[in-house]
């Protein structure tokens, strides 16, 4: 992973968790070849381990194949919620939780 290729290391992304893709606004350019071009996704793996889906891949410079960052995305279902996380030097860090029920119990107002 290369801190010289990114504007900010692990930027806070709120609840934006990317399973695929790159956060190009944070990409300064390749520290190895000094070019700012498209970022390739290589070495993509997807593992389903005991109900947890883990997707990992490398962000790589299109020109010189320098590894810019390693991306990790996870998805799990815990109780009545889908939980997502992302950790990547280029794309940032984020977490999100979404209810699988039609009405999210956390957002319901008390009746009295």
Automatic annotation (TrEMBL):
Domain of life: Eukaryota
GO biological process terms on file: fibroblast growth factor receptor signaling pathway; positive regulation of DNA-templated transcription
Alphabetical list of Pfam families matching this protein: Churchill (PF06573)
Keyword Thylakoid set for record: no
UniProt KW rRNA-binding keyword: no
Keywords per UniProt: Activator, Developmental protein, Metal-binding, Transcription, Transcription regulation, Zinc
GO molecular function ontology, one term from the record: zinc ion binding
Family that this chain belongs to: Belongs to the Churchill family.
Protein's UniProt name: Protein Churchill
Organism: Chiloscyllium punctatum (Brownbanded bambooshark)
